[in-house]
Amino acid sequence: MFGTFSLFDSAFVAIVLLSLKVTLTAVGCAGLVGLPLGAALALGRFPGRPVIIVIVNAFMGLPPVVAGLAVFLLLSRSGPLGGFGLLFSPAAMVVAQFSLVLPIIIALTRQTIEDLWGEYRDQLTSMGAGPLRAIPTLIWDARFSLVTGLLAGLGRAFAEVGAILIVGGNIAGFTRTMTTAIALETSKGDLPLALGLGAVLMALTLAINGLALAVSRLGARFAG
Fold it and tell me: Which of 37, 91, 167, 183 has the most other CB atoms within 10 Å of its CB?
């Protein structure tokens, strides 16, 4: 009645692989940018810092469709980056997910590093390490907590549909991810494919949460 699909179907595999590629790339780039920015925001003292912290925290709850619209305007032909022709491509989807995950990583990193600095400030200062020089040490010491933050960003990115639908266009075989395919196939009545993709997405979500729990417990064991 609803049609059939196979886990080894080329279209099914392509959708899953594209989802993994886009999300892992976006979160990886957000981590490379967000970890040092969050640490610098935690330890730096400069005019406007409280305002930036408020903005970053607010952007943690940024609606995906708003982020998608902003990226769409940025990458459209009349936008400042329209000349690169990235709209309706996997690269545009990476940018959209990057914009959603980055505030989460910055905010969580800032809080973690700020707490650690308050705990070890006297010790690090006595060793001649000022706030900015202490950033690599603090990041390393907080590595388990920061990995948990990265996994939180990964979970948000995997579940996202609005932003990548706007900037990717849900083009079959090119920009169709698990979340956009689930929405489309459900509306078409192709429930087996939608359920199969949903099962994979749930498995990934459970794996991410399990990994986050394992990392936090490992960090607590090392701290103890």
Answer: 167
